[in-house]
Design goal:
This protein has a single domain (17-103), classed as Orthogonal Bundle (Arc Repressor Mutant, subunit A), CATH 1.10.10.10. It has a 3-stranded antiparallel beta sheet. The chain is built from 5 helices and 3 strands. The chain is 53% helix and 12% strand. The longest helix has 23 residues, at 90-112. The protein has helices spanning 17-24, 28-38, 44-50, 56-68, 90-112; strands at residues 42-43, 72-77, 83-88. Helix 2 (28-38) packs across helix 5. By secondary structure, it is mainly α.
Length: 117
């Protein structure tokens, strides 16, 4: 079987798309990123409302994964009641910028799709 690696790329990586998909894989992560893109600082409850259908467990899990990947920053404030805010890191902003063309493609496709039967 032929490899899709390009010269200079580490073994097992295919043009970077596989690495990107490891970070944003699944339905919810991209929607979480988009919600954080629209407003720089969001609390957990805000994100829960902005990503309809996501469960608290999945949202918390994805936020932890995005934080571990360096895409999302979590800041906990020493207040009563406790306050935690999430925002995009520089890499998160760059990732969202990279997703803009994909979002435009999706909007165009949705607008040109024939009506459901």
């Amino acid at each position: 079987m032929a490899t899709l690696n390009r010269p200079g790329e580490p073994d097992g990586h295919v043009c970077g798309i596989d690495t990107a998909l490891e970070v944003i894989g699944g339905k919810w992560k991209v929607l979480i990123l988009w919600a954080l893109h629209e407003q720089p600082h969001r609390r957990f409850g805000e994100l829960r409302r902005l990503v309809p259908g996501v469960t608290e467990k999945v949202l918390a899990s994805h936020l932890r994964e995005l934080e571990a990947d360096g895409i999302v920053r979590r800041v906990s404030y020493d207040e009563t009641p406790p306050r935690v805010e999430y925002s995009l890191t520089e890499d998160g902003v760059r990732l969202n910028d990279a997703l803009d063309p994909l979002a435009a493609w999706g909007r165009e496709r949705a607008a040109s799709a024939p009506p459901a039967a």
